[in-house]
Amino acid sequence: MAIATDLPSPDPTPGLPPRPQPRNPSDLFWSFTWLALQGFGGVLAVVQRELVEKKRWMTNEEFVEDWAVAQIMPGPNVVNLSIMIGDRYFGLRGAFAALAGMLTFPLMLVLALAVIYAEFSSHPAVAGALRGMGAVAAGLIAGVGIKLFVSIKKHPLGRPLCVAFVILTVITMAVLRWPLLWILPVVGGAACLLTWRKLAP
């Protein structure tokens, strides 16, 4: 199924080869199903690898911007992102297809694993394995953070100010232990305001 011509193209730059994009809502469904089924312990790493590095549906810079929007919306970040991407390409049909892909088969798998976990959760080996996966999840998130950090070189604020906001966010979250509802409007709001003033004519 061809993409409707009235939808905005995610890569309007003339002279460049067209960017890969989902062929139809079914492609969105199975792509996000596969993405969700890989999301053990660190879905952010999987999302970035699948959408940016493998499928190339977006650049690192676009991923950072879309992920930021997904974070400030209510609900799971990756679900919000899937709805945004689905809507971008195929409107409401695409949003529902991507959402169904994120939830249908993973939900069945989670329910099955929950039954198994309830049966064996008291076993010391199972508890130890889960603690070990926590370290792996932290490593996955840190690795994605390093990959995405490269994208700030094209940010309107410039690298020094972006680095300052990164450090400030880490301090407020890890040291001061501010809740997310404080960090987003205070630190995120300041970054948005400065960027808007930088881009304003």
Per-chain topology:
Layout (H helix, E strand, L loop, with lengths): L24 H13 L5 H12 L5 H13 L4 H44 L3 H26 L9 H17 L4 H20 L2
Helix pairs in contact: 1-4, 3-4, 6-7
List keywords for this structure.
disordered N terminus; globular; 201 residues; 2 domains
Summarize the structure.
With 201 residues, this protein is mostly helical.
Q: What does this protein structure show overall?
A:
It is a single chain. This protein is mostly helical and 201 residues long. Mean pLDDT is 82; it is low at 1-9. The chain folds into two domains: 25-153, no CATH class; 155-201, no CATH class. Helices cover 72% and strands 0% of the residues. The radius of gyration is 19 Å and the shape is globular.
Largest sheet: none
End-to-end separation: 40 Å
- Which blocks of ≥5 consecutive residues have pLDDT under 50? 1-9
- Rg is 19 Å
- Average pLDDT: 82
Helix fraction, binned, reads over 70%
Could you spell the SSE succession in H and E letters?
Answer: HHHHHHH
Helix/strand class: mainly alpha
Beta-strand residue percentage: under 5%
Put simply, the count of helices is 7
| Shape descriptor | globular
**What number of domains?**
2
Question: Count of DSSP E strands?
Answer: 0
